[in-house]
Amino acid sequence: MPKVTQAHRDARRRQILDAARTVFAEKGFAQSSTGDIVARSGLSAGALYHYFPSKDHLIQAVCEDAIHTALDDVTSSSLPESPERVHGTGDGREHARLMAQIWGEAAVSPRLAERVRHHLATAHAKATDLIRVERTVHGVPADRDATGTAHVLLALLTGYTLRLAMGDEESPDAFVRAIDTIIKTP
């Protein structure tokens, strides 16, 4: 029997996470079954349980992956373009629906809330640094409450994500202009 490589195991795990992410975004955590995820992944139930011993473990892994990706995306390179990255490709609602569920679950799951707070703290630090850089580039004093501005920016992006999750068709353009104004206002 050929030896299974780490790359193969990583690819199968990613395949399950991607399938679970799609199913959770469509149905929610409570209404999704492992059978739904198995069907979406095209793998067997045994494969799913090999990587994730329970639905709760899978939910935690999807949440961790989604939070990390989302907060990393919105605090990379250009803050004013963050709403466009939140919106993503297509209608952007799959990611937004998943994030709305994660925030709701974090409200009742201390373990998940701790992970969300950790990622938010990291995103906040990155956003603060990016705000200082943007302000310096535009001749605005870099130290002018960049920390508070980062809190406002992350709250604005959370609100935009929730609106998108609920089907709001608002273009990210207005949010891009608002972020640009917040960053560049002395």
UniProtKB/TrEMBL annotation:
InterPro entries listed in its UniProt record: BetI_C, DNA-bd_HTH_TetR-type_CS, Homeodomain-like_sf, HTH-type_TetR-like_transc_reg, HTH_TetR, Tet_transcr_reg_TetR-rel_C_sf
The UniProt record lists the keyword Repressor: yes
Pfam family, one: TetR_N
HTH tetR-type domain: residues covered: 10-70
DNA-binding region per UniProt: 33-52
This protein's UniProt keywords: DNA-binding, Repressor, Transcription, Transcription regulation
Protein's name in the database: TetR/AcrR family transcriptional regulator
Source organism of this protein record: Streptomyces neyagawaensis
